[in-house]
Amino acid sequence: MTAEDRAAAVGAEDGARSKTTAALRGLMGQCPACGRGRLLRNYLKPVDHCTHCGEAFGHLRADDAPPWMTILIVGHIIIPAVLSVEQSYEPATWVHLTIWPLLTLLLTGLLLPRCKGVVLGLLWSTGAPGSERA
């Protein structure tokens, strides 16, 4: 059985959705059900349906979880780096004001869609209902 066959089998099993597989596929921006279609379009907008398997994602709402997760990860990378550089090299203030905001923005831009994919994958794997509002 190839990896693609296993991926299709995981998506086809009713009630046996692997949270780990769904989260990893979401991290890679792939459909958590089949692993072939895209999960996001236009940077952060989830697709309504997977183009490959037809699984619906438009009803899933990640809300504030992806930004919080991104802040947690970026903060744990940037703050120790700032402190380490300051202790080791004591650069001028303008160096700190140039490097760290740019690095923070870069990491945030790279991690935010991946965090949203993880959250959407986990929501899908748990069968969480969408929060439709009347």
Q: What's this, in brief?
A:
With 134 residues, the chain is mostly helical.
Put simply, the count of helices is: 4
Helices and strands, in order, run as HHEEHH
Average pLDDT number: 89
Strand runs, count: 2
- Overall, the morphology is elongated
Low-pLDDT runs? none
| Main sheet overview | 2 strands, antiparallel
The separation of the N and C termini measures 45 Å
Helix content: 55-70%
List the strand order in the largest sheet: 1-2
As for the number of domains, it is: 1
Structural class: mainly alpha
The rounded Rg comes to 19 Å
% residues in beta strands: under 5%
InterPro entries: DUF983
Organism: Azospirillum brasilense
Protein name: DUF983 domain-containing protein
Pfam families: DUF983 (PF06170)
